[in-house]
Amino acid sequence: MATVFSHWTYAHENPDMDLVLGAAVHLGSAGLEVNGMLVSWGISMRDGGIHAVHTLEPYRGHGYGKIVMRHICQRIVVESNQFPVVHIEGYNSASVRLMTSIGFQFSHSMTWTDFDPS
């Protein structure tokens, strides 16, 4: 999991890392190894959301992200009868291309807001 967290942009912002770790281990998450090294992965959550999708730079363009995403999506649909969902930062054109290439469609824009109850 250290590899995943070290490449996940929002790992440091997530106060529920135990929840994410549990999801990675027990839900429909997937990773792809090349010569014993994890090179592409994604983590699915209980609500059908898919997070932390990433392929290491030297391994991009080989279809590894598609393999991982198709596997995760199939598991979400078959095992939990939910629709897979991804949230992509608007500037991340590579992720947009990957997701549309496997059938995702743009639904709507979102704005994330932090809440401080104090």
Observed structural traits:
alpha+beta, globular, 118 residues, Aminopeptidase, 4 strands, 4-stranded mixed sheet
Structure description:
The protein has 4 helices and 4 strands; from the N terminus they run ααβββαβα. A hairpin with a 2-residue loop joins strand 1 (30-34) and strand 2. It has a single domain, classed as Aminopeptidase, CATH 3.40.630. The radius of gyration is 14 Å and the shape is globular. A 4-stranded mixed β-sheet has the order 1-2-3-4, with helices on both faces. The chain has helices at 2-7, 17-26, 64-80, 93-101, and strands at 30-34, 37-44, 49-55, 85-86. Helix content is 36%, strand content 19%. With 118 residues, the protein is α+β, with helices and mostly antiparallel strands.
The CATH class designation is Alpha Beta
Described by the principal axes of the CA atoms, the overall outline is globular
CATH architecture: 3-Layer(aba) Sandwich
N-to-C SSE string, H for helix and E for strand: HHEEEHEH
Number of domains: 1
Q: Helix coverage percent of residues?
A: 25-40%
Based on helices, strands and strand pairing, what is the structural class? alpha+beta
Biggest pleated sheet: 4 strands, mixed
Q: Tell me the span between the first and last alpha carbons.
A: 33 Å
Structure summary, number of beta strands: 4
Over all CA atoms, what is the radius of gyration? 14 Å
Let me know the CATH homologous superfamily: Gcn5-related N-acetyltransferase (GNAT)
Specify the number of helices: 4
